[in-house]
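Final report, Chapter 2: Outcomes

The project's central promise was a pipeline that accepts a single protein chain and returns its three-dimensional structure in a standardized token representation, suitable for archiving and comparison. That pipeline is now operational. To close this chapter, we reproduce one record exactly as it appears in the project archive, with the input sequence first and the structure output second.
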Amino acid sequence: MINNILKDKPTKLFVGFAAFFVANALIAECIGGKLFSLEKIFGGVSANITLFGQSGLSFNLTCGVLLWPLEFILTDIVNEFYGPKAVKQISYIAVGLIGYAFLMFYIAMQVPAADFWIGSKKDSGIPNMQDAFTGIFGQGMWIILGSLTAFVVSQLVDVTVFHRIKRITGEKWVWLRATGSTLVSQLVDSFVVLFIAFKIGNGWSWQLVLAICLVNYTYKFTMAIVLTPLIYLIEGWIERYVGHDVAKKMKRTAMGQEPDAFSNIPTAG
């Protein structure tokens, strides 16, 4: 039985997508503690934006946003070929493993450090390795809660919007359902994480939360548009890999149109 599973191309694809999805989400959370200046990457000066009475805003973003656009693209691909249940399943797995990772980070921070290790990087400008370790991995509980909640909510929104658009457009206009669902879900994601982590957790004003939300969403909106062609490239590769007929039936099954679509299709690789 296991050999048949390993030879089934749609199954192998799903395992690969699920593994990348979870790993990508976990890495994004781990590197999210660092902020970077988008303007500096392109050699520019601070944008100095004013929104809702909040001045001096610029594109200082968490490094996690470098990976999240890929996460939403993969969500749309899984949605297209495997359906909403598959997206929800890998999303819940990702959240569970991210929560597990944060728990392990917390335990690692509490374990007494070896004396020689604490000062082992003084020559490199790090006087206390324990403080450095805690500073990197010790994200606040409100940030963790906000991030995980935003991830789950935005994924559910993405699934819902994607399939509502697809029921209207059918197989046409992949760009509309993929990009449209991503634009809506990333707006939700941007707002929820800021609301929980900084409005509730740190008492930020509504004006500041909304201003930073719009700045962050501007980046995500732009990336969603720029990366739209990648969805067509991936879909084209999938159709070549599993075959046009299998890919077509996978899409129909994802929409609940053919529950037994794969029962008589040889997909051995």
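Archive annotation: Confidence is low (pLDDT under 50) at residues 259-269.
This record, like all others produced under the grant, will remain available to the consortium after the project formally closes.
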